[in-house]
Amino acid sequence: MADEGLRPIIVKRIKKSGGGHHGGTWKIAYADFVTAMMAFFLLMWLLGSTTKGNLQGIADYFATPLKVAMAGGSGSGDATSVIKGGGKDMTRIDGQQKQGDDATPTKKSNLKAAAAELERQEMERLKSLKERIEEAIDSNPSLRQYKNQLLLDITSEGLRIQIVDEKNRPMFALSKAELQPYTKIILHEIAKTLNDIPNRISLSGHTDATPYSSGEKSYSNWELSSDRANASRRELIAGGMAESKMLRVVGLSSAVLFDPTDPLNPINRRISIIVMNKKTEDSITKENRTAEVADEETAKETVEKGVNISGVVQPAPAAVPKPTSVPVAPKPTASATATAAAAAAAGK
């Protein structure tokens, strides 16, 4: 018992820290929260700066990653990656091909609408030229007196300017291709306006149906109409028209009469100047081109567009303009008809 009183008494004191029973674990939780928020905002920034096409590629990858990796597509490769390739063609080494929204999308042009607009603009130019020529005729005293012999109209070929004969005022010398002085004045005034537009010119000569005494075997209305057309061409060039604008010069004799009801009418003797539209010009310049067709269906379509079976492009047939109505005199007697025929032959 005496030994127990001598045993030392030990007192243990526990020091409590300032953190309480939680200690420092809250700091770890706060750090995890901040890290998660940084990752969230970084994700939002990446989604906001990624194009729609790349987003679709990412979505496809997470939906079917193996399919995208094997077949390629947006997001499956990167040109800046160490491993080159990607896109639809896995053999390419130039990097993936962008399939997203293009900043400069290609514009699909409507060819029919463009052709219609060009045709409309060309028609406006021809109408404007017609008005300028009419104003030049009205303002020029030397031309105003020949106004009845100058006929202007718009046809399927373009703007047509016709210089016609009158009974007592022919354009050429009798049965010759020699132009009268006033005819040269008319052609010179017309030539001044033709260079203002890019359209090219077709010129044709016409006669009445009065035959030469030698018939068609030697010099005939065909040669006469051709010579008169060429003489008119030379005067147009002398008046200032560019030589390159002339595309066609023909003599049509009496094949295309202005007054079919009276083949001997002096009005049938005329010079026709046509400022051609693009369609008519193409039908002349492309008449010697060939077209190759692969099958029967293509050949049928090609023929319908103006190409024959041999493959040679044929120009569209020129529409013969409807003649202006000409007052027809009462039917003469037999003696009067003979007298008129003799007078017409003398004034060819």
UniProtKB/TrEMBL annotation:
Membrane topology: Single-pass membrane protein
Membrane-crossing segments per the record: none
Region (Disordered): 83-108, 200-220
Swiss-Prot/TrEMBL keywords: Cell membrane, Coiled coil, Membrane, Transmembrane, Transmembrane helix
Comp. bias (Polar residues): 201-220
Any coiled-coil regions, as ranges: 111-139
CDD domains with a match to the protein in the record: OmpA_C-like
Domain of life: Bacteria
Protein name, per record: Chemotaxis protein MotB
Localisation per UniProt entry: Cell membrane
GO cellular component, one term: plasma membrane
Chief localization: membrane
